[in-house]
Each structure stands twice: as C-alpha cells, then as structure tokens.
Amino acid sequence: MAWEACAGRLAPQPYIYHANHVYCDANSIFTNEDASRALRAPGNPQSCFAMESLMDELADKLAMDPLDFRIKNLNDDHIRQLVRGAKEIGWARRV
Predict the structure, then answer these.
(1) Cis peptide upstream of residue 14 (ω within 30 degrees of 0)
(2) Can you tell me the mean pLDDT for 18-30?
(3) Cβ distance 22 to 37 under 8 Å?
(4) Which long-range CB contacts under 8 A does 46-55 form with residues at least 24 apart?
(5) Average pLDDT for 78-86
(6) At residue 8, does pLDDT exceed 60?
(7) Whole-number pLDDT of residue 2
C-alpha cells in the first residue's frame, strides 16, 4: 500500500508525541468528490483529550508518575512547559 493512502490519518495526534513505528491499514476509493479538509482544527481538543487520557492510563499501568511519563516521551520544548506548569500548580504537593 502506498504511504499516501495513510498520510492524512498518520498526522501526529495530538501533535506533541512521536511514534517511531506506526501501522496503518487503509483502502481508497474514487468518489468524484473534493478531499475533506479540517477547518480550524475541528476534533483537535477531542483527540488531545483521548491521547492524554491514554498517557495517564499507560503511566498508571507502569506505576509511573504521569508527569514523569510525559517528560520521558516528549521533546525538550514541551518538557520545559510541563516542568513549569507542574511547579505553578504544585504538582509535587498533590495527595
């Protein structure tokens, strides 16, 4: 299968995590229609919620702190933001 068939569905969701290995199974059909395109990122908040919920579940299954799990799986730009946010909300003092 051509990479192009999966390209739209393989856009990184929710845009901050990177997966080295991805599986995609797609079928294309010709419909004489214009391609559908996102308008101002509809669905992005929902996909972010789903991805962050999954990250919480994975951290729980690994018995890791959710913040540490995210830091381990993000690039430097986002790590700085997470550390700052955790400090501002008092993450270390949570019960």
Answers:
(1) yes
(2) 75
(3) no
(4) 47/13, 47/14, 48/13, 48/14, 51/13, 51/14, 51/17, 52/14, 55/17
(5) 89
(6) no
(7) 45
The yes-or-no verdict on residue 50 having pLDDT over 70 is yes
Burial status of residue 69 (CB atoms within 10 A of its CB: 0-12, 13-18, 19 or more): middle
Type and span of the H or E element at 77:
helix 76-89
DSSP string, 55-83: HHHHHHHTT--HHHHHHHTS-HHHHHHHH
Average pLDDT over residues 62-90: 89
| Joined tokens for residue 30 | 């010709």
Residue 37 phi, psi (nearest 5): -135, 145
Cβ–Cβ < 8 Å for 73, 14: no
Cβ contact 87:71 at 8 Å: no
What pTM does this model have? 0.62
- Map residue 40 onto helix, strand or coil: coil
- Cβ(14)–Cβ(44) below 8 Å: yes
